[in-house]
TrEMBL record:
Alphabetical list of HAMAP family matching this protein: Ribosomal_uS2_B
Cited CDD domains: RPS2
UniProt entry keywords in alphabetical sequence: Ribonucleoprotein, Ribosomal protein
Protein name in the entry: Small ribosomal subunit protein uS2
Family as reported in the entry's similarity comment: Belongs to the universal ribosomal protein uS2 family.
Region (Disordered): 223-244
Gene, per the UniProt record: rpsB
GO terms for MF: structural constituent of ribosome
Any one GO cellular component localisation term in the record: small ribosomal subunit
GO BP of this protein: translation
Species in which this protein is naturally found: Candidatus Woesebacteria bacterium RIFCSPHIGHO2_01_FULL_41_10
InterPro entries tied to this protein: Ribosomal_uS2, Ribosomal_uS2_bac/mit/plastid, Ribosomal_uS2_CS, Ribosomal_uS2_flav_dom_sf
Keyword Lipid metabolism: no
Domain of life of the native organism: Bacteria
Biased composition (Basic residues): 227-244
Length: 244
């Protein structure tokens, strides 16, 4: 397993929480100090939480589970998209659509519509349409691509979710909880750590800190996939006889 650097967490500002007036008392165990009216995280506990989350992600990837990444905020969306694509997992980098999980059939329908429209555009199926009609279709494709493009590989319910800023993405957390999908969540001092199974207490507004943790997650998933047991090829009866 990769080494988690306390120095890196310090350099990237992972230790800064929110102003004390904005805090959730349930985060008290993760707070080390208060400086200039701002809560300071205990980075030892942050490191321990990251280590636990990495083990969970590694195990999930080893077992071939599906992990859904959620992080639309500007500080995380680019890196989150990069990591999700690199690991081959689905992601949400735009506003969470209510019902993404609890009304999964509708989301899959939108994804399938996106695929069909893109194929039809590429094949020239709309060649006889008017310019205005084609423009409307292209706009529809762009809108679908924006909101469900990252979910193309999500064929069924995810087994695990990674959420950046659980306070902001509470809608996603509520749906995951309802469907008993465990969540690895980055929680700041204004969040409720009890809402997720694997909270990572740290600054959820620092781009560099978020990127560092996502890179660690990518590494853990990569390790898990590399140790995934290979399926044995079935030997047919005819082949068995030939070997004798």
């Amino acid at each position: 397993m990769q080494e988690i650097s306390l120095e890196k967490l310090l350099e990237t500002g992972a230790y800064f929480g929110h102003q004390t007036r904005r805090w959730n008392p349930k985060m008290e165990d993760y707070v080390y100090d208060v400086r200039d009216g701002v809560h300071i995280f205990d980075l030892i506990k942050t490191k321990q939480a990251i280590a636990q989350a990495l083990e969970v992600l590694k195990k999930a990837s080893t077992e071939g589970k599906t992990i859904l990444f959620v992080g639309p905020k500007k500080q995380s969306k680019d890196k989150l998209t990069e990591v999700a694509k690199a690991t081959g997992y689905p992601y949400v980098n735009q506003r969470w659509l209510g019902g993404t999980l609890t009304n999964f059939g509708q989301i899959r329908s939108s994804v399938e519509q996106l695929g069909k429209l893109k194929n039809d555009l590429e094949s020239g199926a709309f060649a006889d349409y008017t310019k205005k009609e084609r423009l409307l279709i292209e706009r529809r494709v762009q809108k679908l691509e924006k909101f469900v493009g990252g979910l193309v590989t999500l064929k069924s319910m995810p087994d695990l979710m990674v959420v950046v800023d659980t306070h902001r993405e509470r809608g996603a957390i509520i749906e995951a909880t309802r469907l008993r999908i465990p969540v690895v969540g980055i929680v700041d001092t204004n969040s409720d750590p009890g809402e997720v199974e694997y909270p990572i207490p740290m600054n959820d507004d620092a781009t560099a800190a978020i990127s560092y943790v996502l890179e660690l997650m990518q590494g853990a998933i990569g390790e898990g996939k590399s140790t995934k047991p290979k399926k044995e090829k079935k030997v047919t009866k005819g082949a068995k006889k030939a070997k004798k």
